[in-house]
């Protein structure tokens, strides 16, 4: 039987007296598109941030590719395989688009070169990663923006660059934390379109979003969070078509 790519066991997270995650146990398998929905303050973003330990869980365990991250001595190695896209892009304003995309990938390969005593030079690594970055930019139609700075881009362009930057690391899974919530309505479509492409290509994805149409059309499974717990989960046709949980019914009546 296939092992889960990501597994959380009784995950809990508190900030002082406030319990934000209250016992989250979930398995995510390779190729799944898991969409997390729920009201504001239900713990969705905290759950996502815990998955690659941007937030440290108070209790519980997280396993990635069978390795327990919460006790890992090589967390950076695991993080390289988890692409993360945030609400507010998090691009470096002082670096060009091309540098934003290649920076982490070049650093990772230089570290690998040192570790394995590879003969490739830094110049060769930079050239290869630049070529890959340009191909990724061409894919989203923004190759002409390679040498500009993020301040000159629209919100939709910035978010697509942020997605491409994560893809440059060749991740096993992509984590999206409300990637369209900071965008003007007319820019939402271009970001969701790129995410749908990735889903169609088989990328494992965990997406926190308020875009119910995307959740309905793209997800293989939907998690409904409420009060720090997973109150309901199932395929999209069940969650949206015949919800059984009363709190889920109430939530959907407000957002659909």
What structural class is derived from the secondary structure elements? alpha/beta
**Main sheet overview:** 6 strands, mixed
Q: How far apart are the first and last residues' alpha carbons, in Å?
A: 37 Å
Helix content: 40-55%
Low-confidence stretches: none
- Tally of helical runs: 9
Please state roughly what percent of the residues sit in beta strands, choosing from under 5%, 5-15%, 15-25%, 25-35%, 35-45% or over 45%.
15-25%
The general outline is globular
Secondary structure: number of strands? 10
Radius of gyration from the alpha-carbon trace, in angstroms? 19 Å
Sequence of strands across the biggest β-sheet:
6-7-8-3-9-10
Report mean pLDDT, rounded to a whole number.
94
Helix and strand sequence: EEEHEEHEHHHEHEHEEHH
Protein architecture, described:
Helix content is 40%, strand content 23%. The protein is α/β, with parallel strands linked by helices. It has a 6-stranded mixed beta sheet with strand order 6-7-8-3-9-10, with helices on both faces. Strand 7, helix 6 (185-200) and strand 8 form a beta-alpha-beta unit. Helix 3 crosses helix 4 (122-139) and helix 5 (155-167) runs parallel beside helix 6 (185-200). The relative contact order is 0.17. The mean pLDDT is 94.
What's the structural blueprint in terms of helices and strands?
Blueprint lengths: L5 E10 L2 E11 L4 E5 L6 H8 L7 E6 L2 E2 L6 H5 L2 E4 L11 H20 L5 H18 L15 H13 L5 E5 L7 H16 L3 E5 L3 H7 L2 E6 L2 E6 L1 H6 L4 H10 L1
Parallel strand pairs: 3-8, 3-9, 6-7, 7-8
Antiparallel strand pairs: 1-2, 1-4, 4-5, 9-10
Helix pairs in contact: 3-4, 3-5, 5-6
């Amino acid at each position: 039987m296939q092992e889960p790519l990501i597994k959380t066991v009784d995950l809990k997270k508190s900030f002082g007296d406030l319990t934000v995650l209250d016992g989250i146990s979930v398995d995510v398998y390779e190729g799944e598109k898991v969409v997390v929905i729920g009201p504001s303050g239900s713990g969705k973003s905290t759950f996502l941030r815990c998955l690659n330990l941007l937030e440290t869980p108070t209790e519980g365990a997280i396993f990635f590719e069978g390795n327990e991250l919460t006790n890992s001595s090589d967390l950076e190695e695991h993080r390289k395989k988890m692409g993360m896209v945030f609400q507010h892009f998090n691009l470096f304003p002082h670096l060009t688009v091309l540098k934003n995309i290649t920076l982490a990938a070049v650093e990772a390969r230089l570290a690998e070169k040192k570790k394995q005593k590879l003969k490739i030079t830094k110049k060769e690594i930079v050239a290869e990663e630049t070529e890959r970055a340009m191909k990724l930019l061409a894919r989203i139609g923004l190759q002409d923006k390679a040498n500009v700075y993020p301040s000159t881009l629209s919100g939709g362009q910035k978010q697509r660059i942020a997605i491409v930057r994560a893809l440059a690391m060749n991740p096993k899974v992509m984590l999206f934390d409300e990637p369209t919530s900071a965008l003007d309505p007319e820019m939402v479509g271009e970001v969701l379109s790129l995410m749908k492409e990735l889903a169609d290509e088989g990328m494992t994805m965990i997406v926190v979003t308020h875009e119910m149409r995307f959740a309905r059309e793209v997800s293989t499974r939907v998690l409904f969070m409420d009060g720090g717990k997973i109150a309901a989960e199932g395929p999209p046709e069940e969650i949206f078509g015949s919800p059984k949980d009363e709190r889920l019914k109430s939530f959907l009546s407000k957002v659909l």
